[in-house]
């Protein structure tokens, strides 16, 4: 047999080395810095350092779980097409790879749902919704493609916040959705002024926090009625931040989109019948309606268990953290629209790619 030489032989040799090189979990764990990020999926080890700035979910999930097996999280968040991207980053095989019974059961459920087509979007439903919205917005159809323009909330902020919440659900030091000091404290452990890994600052339990938390049982619902204001503020704080580590891709475009919102929304309110009092009532009422979901999210998570990580989130207890940090809110089917289907928070966290219309169907399983 004639030996293959040249570039083809070199590529084959590199591919063979990636397949045969074996590392332990301890060795992989050393690759957990911003300039050296390795992860493992189903026993295969990948160097995703170069992928960080291109990851559709942002760099935060990869940095949070760097140096660990991330199979369950990868299965939860990625469609079949994402598996093809992995091969180009493979560097080794995990020699001590093992699967817990809990993870095995979870992956079996995901496979069954995929086989049943539950992860598939129903095209006719999406088309009907888009047609209805297009008819309502008529000449302003462009608003449909720019969430910043429609809601005044940064898509980049939402993605960063949402992914951090899902990766470390109900972690007092890593999950921004349970970090509401000085207004609310969801655990006595917050009285120790722990540091937020997400905001990169201490959440101090000072005199102001002590006073406000003492009355949180009275202020909770009023604050929920205007909680949307915090989303506006957090969006602007992130977009205007000088810290390059949290710099949002397309920042200027997002700022322009938010600026558009603050042009058309006040103009719309000013054109409504009535005077200042009626306009203020409209704004407060619209915020209070969205407060239904804010209350629901708090019930979903504040009522569940919280915990603190020592160091970064772990990849080997992802399933357990999702189930322990979430609760479902029971309600009749006709209320699904008001909750956006997200009252099934356990199912949403375990199967985030599952269309919301299927969450009620899989809940009994």
TrEMBL record:
**From which source organism is this entry?**
Zea mays
One Pfam family hit: Cyt-b5
List the Gene3D superfamilies: Cytochrome b5-like heme/steroid binding domain
What protein family is recorded?
A: Belongs to the fatty acid desaturase type 1 family.
User: What protein does this entry describe?
Assistant: Delta(8)-fatty-acid desaturase 2
Q: Where is this region: Disordered?
A: 1-26
Question: What InterPro entries is this protein classified in?
Answer: Cyt_B5-like_heme/steroid-bd, Cyt_B5-like_heme/steroid_sf, FA_desaturase_dom, Fatty_acid_desaturase
Q: GO: which molecular function terms?
A: oxidoreductase activity, acting on paired donors, with oxidation of a pair of donors resulting in the reduction of molecular oxygen to two molecules of water
């Amino acid at each position: 047999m004639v030996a293959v030489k040249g570039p083809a032989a070199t590529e084959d040799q590199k591919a063979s080395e990636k397949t045969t090189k074996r590392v332990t979990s301890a060795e992989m764990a050393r690759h957990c810095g911003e300039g050296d990020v390795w992860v493992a999926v189903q026993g295969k080890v990948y160097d995703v350092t170069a992928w960080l700035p291109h990851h559709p979910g942002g760099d935060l999930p990869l940095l949070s779980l760097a140096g660990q097996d991330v199979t369950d999280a990868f299965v939860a968040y990625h469609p079949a097409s994402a598996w093809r991207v992995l091969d180009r980053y493979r560097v080794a095989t995990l020699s001590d790879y093992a699967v817990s019974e809990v993870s095995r059961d979870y992956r079996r459920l995901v496979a069954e749902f995929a086989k049943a087509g539950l992860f598939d979007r129903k095209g006719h439903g999406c088309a009907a919704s888009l047609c209805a919205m297009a008819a309502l917005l008529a000449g302003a159809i462009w608003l449909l493609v720019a969430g910043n323009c429609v809601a005044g909330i940064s898509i980049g902020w939402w993605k960063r916040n949402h992914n951090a919440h899902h990766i470390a659900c109900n972690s007092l030091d890593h999950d921004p959705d349970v970090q509401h000091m000085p207004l609310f404290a969801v655990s006595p452990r917050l009285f120790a002024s722990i540091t937020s890994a997400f905001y990169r600052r201490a959440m101090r339990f000072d005199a102001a926090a002590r006073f406000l938390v003492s009355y949180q049982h009275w202020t909770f619902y009023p604050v929920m009625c205007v909680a949307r204001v915090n989303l506006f503020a957090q969006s602007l704080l992130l977009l205007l931040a000088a810290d390059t580590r949290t710099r949002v891709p397309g920042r200027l475009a997002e700022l322009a989109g938010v600026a558009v919102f603050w042009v058309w929304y006040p103009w719309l309110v000013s054109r409504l019948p009535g005077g200042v009092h009626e306009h203020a009532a409209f704004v407060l009422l619209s915020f209070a309606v969205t407060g239904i979901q804010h209350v629901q999210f708090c019930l979903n998570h504040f009522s569940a268990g919280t915990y603190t990580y020592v160091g970064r989130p772990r990849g080997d207890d992802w399933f357990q953290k999702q189930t322990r940090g979430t609760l479902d809110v029971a309600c009749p089917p006709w209320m699904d629209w008001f909750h956006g289907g997200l009252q099934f928070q356990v199912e949403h966290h375990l199967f985030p790619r599952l269309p919301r219309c299927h969450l009620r169907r899989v809940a009994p399983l």
